[in-house]
């Protein structure tokens, strides 16, 4: 189920890692930075509810959606009181789960706005589409993910490691020049629609999207 959910969310623009147990989740959260957490409750090494409450008390933990078969009113109240930001009962359509994640990340203090605009370039985070003066740019999934990331941090250098972590999960095979290849393809597609000199390489560090007349 976790793999199916992760695959479905990846198709909807999220980079996802999966953990088969609470202990694996602990390692992942202590190793990488995440924007959100989707948490089941009945896990092999314990109950996700006290784990979440304890994690909230002791660590900086990202916003969490509980996804579980426990649908009674008392369960939902306990889940929200334990620190969940949303509570979803299985089964759920992946489009709804993705929408709830986007809504969660739009809350104050989080970084996900539904539509981005840098110069003449616009990006719709829900439709996963980019346009320049109304002209649609044909982007592959990871090209769209990269453009969204760069637009959200326009004017700032984004380190190569941050890009790699945003585009790939732990289980994805990543070649040494994977990020460079995606950046190159995205730069070429931007240039094809007249967005020239927007995506800059900061050698030895990463990349930056500059606002300008283009």
Tags for this model:
Arc Repressor Mutant, subunit A; four-stranded antiparallel sheet; elongated; 2 domains; 41% helix; 19% strand; Rossmann fold; 8 helices; 214 residues; three-stranded parallel sheet; alpha+beta
Describe the structure.
- The chain is an alpha+beta fold and 214 residues long.
- The chain has 2 domains: 2-105, Rossmann fold (3-Layer(aba) Sandwich), CATH 3.40.50.2300; 115-209, Orthogonal Bundle (Arc Repressor Mutant, subunit A), CATH 1.10.10.10.
- It contains 8 helices and 12 strands.
- It has a 4-stranded antiparallel β-sheet, with helices on one face. A 3-stranded parallel β-sheet has the order 1-4-5, sandwiched between helices. It has a 3-stranded antiparallel β-sheet with strand order 10-12-11.
- The longest helix is centred in the C-terminal third of the chain and has 15 residues, at 178-192.
- The relative contact order is 0.12.
List the helices and strands and how they pair.
Layout: H1 2-11, H2 22-31, E1 37-39, E2 42-43, E3 46-47, H3 48-58, E4 64-68, H4 73-81, E5 86-89, H5 94-105, E6 115-118, E7 121-124, E8 129-132, E9 135-137, H6 141-152, E10 158-159, H7 160-167, H8 178-192, E11 199-202, E12 206-209
Parallel strand pairs: 1-4, 4-5
Antiparallel strand pairs: 2-3, 6-7, 7-8, 8-9, 10-12, 11-12
Helix pairs in contact: 6-8
């Amino acid at each position: 189920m976790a793999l199916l959910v992760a695959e479905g969310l990846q198709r909807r623009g999220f980079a996802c890692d999966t953990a088969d147990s609470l202990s694996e989740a602990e390692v992942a959260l202590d190793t990488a930075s995440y924007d959100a957490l989707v948490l089941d409750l009945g896990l092999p090494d314990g109950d996700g509810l006290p784990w979440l409450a304890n994690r909230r008390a002791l660590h900086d933990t990202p916003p969490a959606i509980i996804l579980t078969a426990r649908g009674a009113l008392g369960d939902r109240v306990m889940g929200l009181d334990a620190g969940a930001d949303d509570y979803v009962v299985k089964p759920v359509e992946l489009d709804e789960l993705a929408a709830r994640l986007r809504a969660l990340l739009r809350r104050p203090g989080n970084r996900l706005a539904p539509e981005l605009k840098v110069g003449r370039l616009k990006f719709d985070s829900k439709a996963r589409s980019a346009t320049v003066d109304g002209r649609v740019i044909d982007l592959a999934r990871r090209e769209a993910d990269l453009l969204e990331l760069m637009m959200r941090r326009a004017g700032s250098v984004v380190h190569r490691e941050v890009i790699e972590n945003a585009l790939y999960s732990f289980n994805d095979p990543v070649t040494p020049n994977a990020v460079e290849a995606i950046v190159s393809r995205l730069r070429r597609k931007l240039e094809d629609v007249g967005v020239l000199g927007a995506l800059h390489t900061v050698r030895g560090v990463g990349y930056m999207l500059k606002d300008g007349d283009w």
